[in-house]
Amino acid sequence: MGLTPGTPLTELKLDVVFIGSCTNARIEDLRAASRIFKGRKVAPGVRVLVVPGSQHVRRQAEDERLHEIFVAAGCEWRQSGCSMCLGMNPDQLTSGQRCASTSNRNFEGRQGKGGRTHLVSPEMAAAAAIAGHFVDIRTWNRN
Amino acid sequence: MDAFRSHRGRLAVLDRANVDTDQIIPKQFLKSIARTGFGRHLFSDWRYLPDGKPNPDFPLNAERFKGASILVARNNFGCGSSREHAVWAIQQDGYRAVIAPWQQRGATRVPAFADIFRNNASKNALLTIELSEPEVEEIVQMVDRYAGLEATVDLDRQRVTLHLPEEMAFHFEIDAAVKERLIHGLDDIGLTLKQEGAISAFETRHNPQLP
Questions:
Q1: B210: in domain
Q2: Given B23, B31, B81, which is nearest A105 (Cβ)?
Q3: CATH of residue B57
Q4: What domain range includes position B39?
Q5: Concatenated DSSP letters of B110-150
Q6: What is the pLDDT of residues B168-189, one digit of tens each?
Q7: Contact A86 B22 (CB under 8 A)
Q8: Chain A nearest C-alpha distance from B92 (Å)
Q9: Which residues of B touch A86 (CB under 8 A)?
Q10: Mutate to test the interface with B, among A83, A91, A110, A111 (most CBs of B within 10 A)
Q11: Which of A21, A85, A86 should one mutate to test binding to chain B, selecting the residue with the greatest count of B CBs within 10 A?
């Protein structure tokens, strides 16, 4: 995982943020993430994938115009699917990349061989995408 | 489904706990629409170097485990995603049985095998054998000491016997229904077809009544 004991999470820089998976990309998850992204920008060098949990959720999110918030912030607004939850398609981490992921499985190599997965909530993921490193959403300044 | 009564074969040890299905058969190999060809991808990320050559540091690549058909692992084997491919990959790489220890953690008994994996195994005639931790430790040490050690798994008598100069045997428990099905080679379809006479009789009686 490339971690040293005693390192605060806030010092861990991120390469990829994955807001997706069937378990944590429901409409309420996308709403929660969009509230964080609204009027803000993704930190330079961070790739953010927003992948709705289903086509139904995707349509619902577009009806609510959430996708506009994601795109304006610099996220990729994607078709629904498994995407980086397990990386069966090309959505994979490369070796050594660190990812904040709203999926629910962090098995070795699951998001791509050598990738480093941290599991977070949709809000934590969104805030980390903006900061470029992990933050504690409970103390993060939303204003 | 093939029947499983008794099997003699070489033991191989994978000295790791919590081996998950993402390691057993990584996702990039799940796209096949056939149920064959998974064997060479078993433990792919551990087993091969980036250039595709066998990784000499991966224990199951060792010469002493070549041709092994009984895998000895540690606690909570097969956890993770529910993929039947994990069972197929293990079988198609030549294994007939997997041995792992259950573990007592405080008030909790952690089974040797993750539930879905164990169920998938039972429906594919891959025998999963649960022993205690000291028993599995003993087997691991014996495999360590005697290169090429073989064992016989006797499902009928629920016994694993190590073929040492002085034989060593371990009794194991198994669900009676699972045992019955394995011995007779009955998967879910096979079990249903045991009632074929009754099914045919019903269809003969019932179908003419339909418009």
A1: no
A2: B81
A3: 3.20.19.10
A4: 6-205
A5: E-SB-HHHHHHHHTTT-EEEEE-HHHHHHHHHHHHHSTT-E
A6: 999 999 999 999 999 999 999 9
A7: yes
A8: 22
A9: 22, 27, 81
A10: A110
A11: A86
The confidence band for B199, taking pLDDT boundaries of 50, 70 and 90, is very high
Q: Does A116 touch chain B (CB under 8 A)?
A: no
Reduce the secondary structure of B156-209 to three states and give it as a string.
CCCEEEECCCCCEEEECCCCHHHHHHHHHCCCHHHHHHCCHHHHHHHHHHHHHH
Place of tokens 């998950």: B20
How many separate domains does chain B show?
Answer: 1
Contact A96/B at CB under 8 A? no
Q: CA-nearest residue of chain B to A84?
A: B27
Q: What six digits make up the tokens of A97?
A: 């990349």
What's the predicted TM-score (pTM) here?
A: 0.85
Is B20 in Cβ contact with A86 (below 8 Å)?
Answer: no
One-letter amino acid at A22 equals C
Say which residues have a Cβ less than 8 Å from residue B151's Cβ, sequence separation at least 6. Answer: B8, B9, B11, B70, B139, B160, B161, B162, B163
A76 pLDDT exceeds 80?
yes
Q: Which stretch of DSSP H or E encloses residue B81?
A: none
In a domain, B146, yes or no: yes
Mean pLDDT of the region A100-106: 94
